[in-house]
Design goal:
By secondary structure, this protein is mostly helical. Helix content is 82%, strand content 0%. Helix 2 runs antiparallel to helix 3.
Length: 133
C-alpha cells in the first residue's frame, strides 16, 4: 500500500490578521448582556444574597413581560374576532338590502305592466264606445 502523507499544519495567523481582529469594534451590548454584567458585579462585590436577589428580579421581569405579551396577544385575537363578526354582519346587511331592492324593483315592474295594460284596456274601451256613438 502507498503511504499517505500527513496533512500540512495550518499556517499560523500573522500579526496583520491579529491586528485587524483587534481593530474590529466589539458588538453593542444588549440588555441581556447588561443584566448578566450586573449579576457578575453583584457576585464579585456582595455574594450570593445579592446575586439571588438580582436573579429573582430578572425572573420576575421576564415573567411579567411574558404575561404582558400574552395579554396583548389575547387582545389582538379578540379584536380580530370582533372585526370578523362586524364584517360578517355588514355583508349580511348588504345582501339583505340587495335582496329587498330586487324585490321592490320586481314589484315596480309588475305595477308598471299592470298600469300600462289597464290603461290600454280602458283606452280600447273608450275607442269602442266612441265608435258606437
Amino acid at each position: 500500500m502507498a503511504e499517505v502523507a500527513p496533512p500540512a499544519p495550518a499556517p499560523e495567523p500573522t500579526k496583520d490578521i491579529a491586528e485587524e481582529r483587534a481593530a474590529v469594534p466589539a458588538p453593542e451590548e444588549s440588555k441581556a448582556m447588561t443584566v448578566v454584567d450586573d449579576a457578575e458585579k453583584a457576585a464579585a462585590t456582595g455574594g450570593s444574597h445579592e446575586r439571588d436577589a438580582l436573579l429573582t428580579t430578572v425572573a420576575t421581569e421576564k415573567r411579567i413581560s411574558l404575561i404582558k405579551a400574552w395579554e396583548e396577544n389575547e387582545k389582538a385575537k379578540a379584536d380580530n374576532k370582533a372585526a370578523k363578526k362586524l364584517a360578517d354582519i355588514a355583508s349580511w346587511e348588504n345582501s339583505k338590502v340587495a335582496e329587498i331592492e330586487a324585490e321592490i324593483k320586481k314589484y315596480q315592474v309588475s305595477s308598471a305592466q299592470l298600469s300600462s295594460s289597464t290603461s290600454r284596456t280602458r283606452r280600447d274601451q273608450l275607442c269602442v264606445c266612441e265608435s258606437l256613438s
